[in-house]
Design goal:
It is a single chain. This protein has 25 helices and 21 strands. By secondary structure, it is α+β, with helices and mostly antiparallel strands. It has 3 domains: 400 residues, 4-Layer Sandwich (Metallo-beta-lactamase, Chain A); 87 residues, Serine Threonine Protein Phosphatase 5, Tetratricopeptide repeat (Alpha Horseshoe); 107 residues, SCP2 sterol-binding domain (Nonspecific Lipid-transfer Protein, Chain A, 2-Layer Sandwich). A hairpin with a 5-residue loop joins strand 15 and strand 16. Helix 8 runs parallel beside helix 21 and helix 12 packs antiparallel against helix 14. The radius of gyration is 26 Å and the shape is globular. The protein binds zinc ion (ZN). Keywords: Hydrolase, Metal-binding, Signal, Zinc. Belongs to the metallo-beta-lactamase superfamily. Type III sulfatase family. Pfam families: Alkyl_sulf_C, Alkyl_sulf_dimr, Lactamase_B.
């Protein structure tokens, strides 16, 4: 909503003039990173061979310009990632970052092509007699168009007959309109295939929780970071360009209902496997029998994935996840020669592919089983995270490393999945809120000065995790304490430099940057809001509005409004009662104080441009009756979300 933008301007620009720059690696960090070289097999370069295999071409200048004119993707930004890792990066992550730098159009086997690393995710093209079936649509339309252009130029100029979106995450569906038009999907001319429940789940995640997840995703994907040896290098899954471009969510016209379901498109046979609540609430994998290709979506990739993504989401079911990989081996294993994940590069060869699937399966199952095992022994989630170590036969495989998800945070996620956030100790059950507790801690530490002095000593001993924890109290007791913020930033930074996980690196570096400079506001955020609201049903819009209600303002008010959407033949009674905004299509004839007949498009306009309310309400086709003050009164209980809420300070 418009009001969000105003809030953004107000809170956004608090950049401190003399903010500290990123520091170099400490001797502790240098040693920790150097040790990685002896722990893992850097002589094994098979991944580089596979990632380069079948290369055809890439973007000549490495750039994709968005419709609004900014450079949304610049592959040259990551050209600094080459050779031996700098002391400020974990060597294993640096290696993964080099692999994810390999970009362009690749031929996997006859009739199967993939464009990689023009976006965080991959896009695959299967050639049919007269066109292409596309798997996944990238984040922004500008990137999917660029990928399709490469295919048209270097393979064959043919139309897209179908788009399969494997799951509900924006990096797989957002760019669909760069490939095909919304009209062609609506008319059925182009098939848009998704797992069942796709649309509802995508809406629920992105609309209801959109604000908080976007802010946290900014940390996870390091959106405000420089791309450099002391900044962003990779998120483990790929490169997070995410600076501008257009994205939309469309309704599918074909939903896959069950595992084993087959479809033939222009002579191309495909078989689907549904994998709900694995990496996404609605997800599928695809097998192309004639081509012997298994498209594994995100249930198997060249990294350990997230059982719970740090941006926040419903916790995923690790046991089911392992089960789906096992099921895929049963269903498609015999006939598979190529495994093509939606992120990272393919696995070539049958035997290698089966080993890859088995070891990915056992990675998820091992951490799941051991978490439950240790929970039953009475360890809490932090203790379990410290305790679990993968067996060497799993941990030595590059694709099982912590590049994206980590053993530590996935163990905590599994604990939470079964047992919730609490560990059973009453001392942790009703803790003081963080600011109140922080003030007491600092008082008991003997004041800020003493706390900072002790924290400095710990920092000099390389105890970065402890420094980060203890200084949180000082900063939350007094957010104006610049030396405390700078020292916590330094500790975050060293943790980041040592992290094998790209997203751990990003979230610690983002925290460090905001401690030094204040809240980071991205320059060219992806334009989702308008297109997104327009793609919602009125019911979903009212669901969204109900979570924007400020309960305190709504308390004691009773207001009923009737909305008529003539083109949808839909009447909805919306009423505020007991501090809650309800909607009903069964009680639509109950008394309403105000009735508004309006097209959905104009209603969306009203929500996104409330300052033009008068013009919209008095425009052609809009009819209202009753007391307009009631409409205004209802509008008054909505509170716009703050998109750039403080994270590292209170
Ligand atoms: Zn993805």
């Amino acid at each position: 909503m418009k009001t969000n933008k105003i809030t953004t301007l107000l809170i956004g620009f608090t950049i401190v003039a003399n903010a500290q720059a990123p520091k170099q690696a400490s001797t502790f960090t240098q040693k920790s990173n150097e040790a990685v070289y002896s722990k893992l097999n850097f002589d094994d370069t098979a991944d580089f061979t596979d990632a380069k295999r079948g290369f055809i071409a890439t973007l000549p200048d490495g750039k994709i310009v968005s419709k609004t004119g900014n450079v949304a993707v610049n592959l040259n930004d990551f050209a600094f990632i080459k050779g031996k890792s700098p002391a400020t990066a974990n060597p294993a992550l640096w290696r993964q970052a080099q692999l994810n730098n390999i970009n362009g159009l690749f031929k996997i086997t006859n009739g199967v092509y993939q464009v990689r690393s023009l976006d965080i995710a991959n896009i695959s093209f299967i050639e049919t007699k007269t066109g292409y079936v596309v798997i996944d649509a990238l984040t922004i339309g500008e990137a999917s168009t660029a990928a399709y252009e490469l295919v048209k130029k270097h393979v064959a100029n043919k139309p897209i007959l179908a788009v399969i979106v494997t799951h509900t995450h924006g990096d797989h569906y957002g760019g669909i309109e760069g490939l095909v038009s919304a009209e062609d999907i609506k008319s059925g001319k182009v098939k848009f295939i998704t797992p069942k429940g796709f649309y509802e789940e995508a809406v629920s995640e992105n609309v209801l929780l959109g604000n908080v997840m976007r802010r946290r995703a900014g940390y996870q994907f390091g959106l405000g970071l420089e791309k450099s040896a002391t900044g962003q290098v990779d998120v483990g899954l790929g490169k997070p360009f995410l600076s501008g471009g257009s994205s939309s969510l469309l309704q599918p016209n074909f939903e896959v209902e069950k595992t084993g379901q087959k479809i033939t498109i222009d002579g191309l046979d495909l078989v689907f496997q549904l994998t709900p609540n694995s990496e996404a609430p609605a997800e599928l994998t695809v097998f192309a029998p004639a081509q012997k290709v298994f498209f594994s979506a995100e249930i198997a990739s060249h990294t350990y994935h997230n059982v719970l993504t740090p941006r926040g989401a419903k916790t995923r079911d690790a046991k089911a996840w392992a089960g789906y990989i096992d099921e895929a081996i049963d269903l498609f294993g015999d006939k598979t020669e190529f495994i093509v994940p939606s992120h990272t590069w393919p696995v070539y060869g049958h035997d290698k592919g089966i080993t890859f699937l088995e070891k990915q399966r056992d990675l998820y199952k091992y951490v799941h089983d051991q978490t439950v095992h240790l929970a039953n022994k009475g360890l809490n989630k932090d203790e379990i995270a410290e305790e679990i170590k993968l067996p060497a036969e799993l941990s030595k495989e590059w694709y099982n490393r912590d590049f994206y998800g980590t053993v530590k945070h996935n163990a905590k996620a599994t604990y939470q999945f079964y047992l919730g956030w609490w560990d059973g100790n009453p001392a942790d059950y009703d803790k003081l809120p963080q600011v109140e507790a922080a003030k007491k801690y600092v008082e008991w530490f003997g004041g800020e000065e003493t706390a900072l002095k002790k924290a400095t000593e710990s920092y000099q001993k390389g105890e970065y995790r402890w420094v980060a924890e203890v200084l949180k109290h000082v900063i939350f007791a007094n957010p104006e304490n610049v030396p405390a913020k700078n020292l916590q930033a330094d500790a975050f930074e060293q943790i980041a430099y040592q992290s094998e996980s790209g997203i751990w690196r990003d979230l610690y570096l983002s925290g460090a940057k905001e401690l030094r400079e204040g809240v980071i506001v991205p320059k060219n955020p992806i334009n989702r809001a308008a297109g997104f609201l327009a793609s919602l049903t009125p019911e979903a819009i009212f669901d969204y509005l109900s979570i924007t209600v400020d309960g305190n303002k709504a308390a004691g008010k009773e207001i009923s409004l009737r909305f008529v959407f003539p083109e949808l033949n839909k009447n909805i009674l919306v009423y505020l009662k007991n501090g809650v905004l309800h909607q009903s299509q069964t009680r639509v004839n109950d008394k309403a104080e105000f009735t508004l007949a309006i097209s959905k498009a104009k209603f969306v306009e009203l929500l996104t441009n409330p300052e033009n309310a008068r013009t919209i309400l008095f425009s052609e086709g809009v009819i209202f009756e009753g007391d307009p003050l009631k409409f205004r009164e209802l509008a008054g209980v909505f509170e716009p979300a703050n998109p750039y809420w403080n994270i590292v300070t209170p």
